[in-house]
Amino acid sequence: MVRYVIRRLLIVPPLILVFSVIIFIIIQAPPGDFLSAYIAQLAAQGSNVSMDQAENLRQQYGLNEPLIVQYFLWMGNLLQGNLGISLDMRQPVATIIADRLPATLLLAGLSFTVTWILAVPMGVISAVRQHSFLDYLFTVISYVGVATPNFMIALVLLWYVLSNFGINLSGLQSADMVGEPLSFAVVLDLLNHLWIPVLILALDGTARLSRIMRANLLDELGKPYVEAARARGLSEWDLIIRYPVRMALNPLISTVGWYLPRLFSGSLIVATVMNIPSIGPTLLRALTSQDMFLAGSILMIYSILVIIGTLISDLLLAFVDPRIRFEA
Amino acid sequence: MNNQKFLSTVVLALILMLGGVWVAGAQAEYSEAPMLAERVEAGELPPVEERLPENPLVMQVEEIGTYGGAWRRGFLGPSDYNNHTRAVYDALVRFNTTGDQVLPHLIEDLSSNDDFTAWTLDMREGAKWSDGEDFTSEDIMFWYDGVALNEDLSPSLPAWISNSDGSAATFEAPDEYTLVVTYDGPNTAFPLELANKDGADRTVAPFLPAHYMGQFHPDVADADTLDALIDEGGFNDWTELFIARVFPPDNPERPSMAAWVPVEGSNLSSQVFELERNPYYVGVDSEGNQLPYFDTLRFSFFSDWENVNLSAAAGEIDWQQRGISVANLPVFLDQAGAGDYTPTNLPTFGGSQVVFFNMTYEDDQYRGLFEQQDFRQAMSVAIDREAINELVYLGLAEPRQPVPAPYHVYYPGDEVAQLYTEFDQEAASSLLDSVGLDQRDSEGFRTFPNGDRLELVIEGSGEGVYSDMMELVAQDWNDVGVRTDIRLQERSLYFERASGNQHMIGIWGMDTSAFPFSGNPKTDPAYASGIADWGPLWIQWFQSDGAQGVEPPENVKQLRELHEQGRLSNTEAQVEIAQEIYTQWADTLYQIGLVGMTPSFAIVSDNLGNVPEVIANDWPLRTPGNAQPETWFFRSE
Question: If 0-12 CB within 10 Å is exposed, 13-18 middle and 19+ buried, where does residue B144 land?
């Protein structure tokens, strides 16, 4: 087991190096650089940046080095734990991420919790009472949830509430609450805004998870050990919760590792549509503006979390399933 | 002492006394916002008379406003830097509301000598930075010596202070409140240029608080102290440190002259970027109340413009045109009553959306075609501009060539503005026949005389209105037998291709058409804009003095000459030259105007006072900065 873990850990540094190169290439792949994107953006707003201005801006942003030099500068700083300064936001990348992390974690954590609280019972009821009214109801909800892009639901909801109640639901806080010290009113205002994105994000996850739960449980329910337990006179619900549900949960638990990077990046499109100050929209903007340091750092952290998440999943599996341990 | 002398002494004394009484009287009439009066009372601020210059800027107002309130706007964070620029419009001289005059603002007067070679800036005695330090000619000289002429900070000399031979114009400060700028030849564009030197586009404004910025500059600061500051901030060299500190919206500590200054700890990266009134702002209304009326200015951060639109629709924004989409007009009209606002049309300041052939395209056969005036004329009259107007702009724009607005002095007349805009596909067809495109292929499309396939490609940025317009233009051209395809591109890609001479036909907005002699005019063939590149290799030729690129034909050189003349002429002569430029411009069809005076909506809160009915709207005017938002106020109900 220990050797298995060490071997897995040893792969991590070269993987990160490979990722860093890929990330750098992807960010640099679109034509031009941050500055040409920035000048194009200024032009779209009516400005007309001249050659001398462009040259002075290039100096300001330190973009007059060749690409390969820029990569090594970036990597060098990264190895020293310095994420650099965002070209677009003009702030240290670490500060930008730290500012957005609480909202991101709060939103992802809550929607994750709500998803599990809803999905597992729904899946269990659907499976145990197969072809019942509730099963059909949950199935319909799940299909709608899976089939409708959740940013669409967000847009429709925003529009509906605005046109009927004249209220703008987007954002995590009302404009006059931002920056206020923590108080009951601030928390209330936060909760008032929070439930919508949480529900929208949870709907998507719930739909998928409850279908998986239902299918897993249906597989288990017909197995001989269930029959045997039932023959011994265990009460029906006691039996289901104690044995087949636990078995059916295993595949779900092994996917927990995948949630690690998702917790960090949050939902990109829903957060953009709903104007939530989380990391997702920041990444999107960093990519479109070719903000190398910000986009690069977020993607690096994301990749590292993917590696760690997969490692956790593998370890969980190895812990549960001895065959994996012994093969290693 | 003889009698006469005595008399004159008495008279002099009387005049002095009266003058003293008058000055004292005038000073006593100044008043200030309650929030500042409190701070004066608490001893944190000197009284308003001491904070204002001896001769403050008097801003004309429709009615005397009341103090208070926050002006709420939406913005996209640091990359939306110019949102702040437009709201505060912090410049030495400014454009007026109707955009046809440049008026003294932070300075008292701007005048030139007879041949426009020397410009004198008279500064306001006693004007102060937001930290209470004096604002003097030294603050401009600091910029000139320390920034403009410093090669680390400005690898290339800002074009507006360069002489015809490329050297820098001379800046001299004869005294604390006078500054003289001397060029080696006449320069009538100086006031226009100065009106846009407000730190926009992250260019350093030509007036800096020398007493504060000096600590970040090696010419002033002690080397060890400066090194310590560089290390402390984690910067690589002093230029990085200087740039990080020089823009007020990045650094609230940096003293400013604007009406609102960032509050402590608030900057462009904040969730809400908040500014509050500058206690030392130089402006007063006609009754001596110190401006601005709004207490604060709040920019809320949004992840994209659609969210700003949503917020505006819900009535959470007080005055904003930036980012407000015409396509959302039905939503705004629907919600206006509930949100207490009115969507108000601010048409663009003349100009037009344009489609243009690349006159220096590599392929000889195509370029040969584009060079023919009859061909361009045919392609112009083949376009159904009314359809574009209806489908893209709800019928609120008008078909026209890219010339200034009818109410602007540079307007060359209706005939020029409407030249070749009449929709006539028959005329287009016969013109096309006459330029040798009379043969058709099996699909019915025209071919080159030698039978080669003719296929035009319009390239453009896929954002906003351009994709719809490209679609419509391509359809019209297909209808007259010219096979046309469109290619939507990401904005940066389109820019790269256009400035790299790779595009065949481009499409873009030809706005800011009322400024042919300042900035980087889009009609001037010598300026590489990277935006509307109708002859990229000609631009190269002009910029490299003929060393690179392709030599343009005589009429283009003449056009260039006209722009140069305009910069050297007085105002009356400029009008004539400008009209000539636009007449040639419309006639040559280097850029084919589609529809112009396009609608652009501002969300205007219903309880705002002093907002002018007509506001000229253009980027050089810094709209709404030119409409004096310092004098706007909230009516209390």
Answer: buried
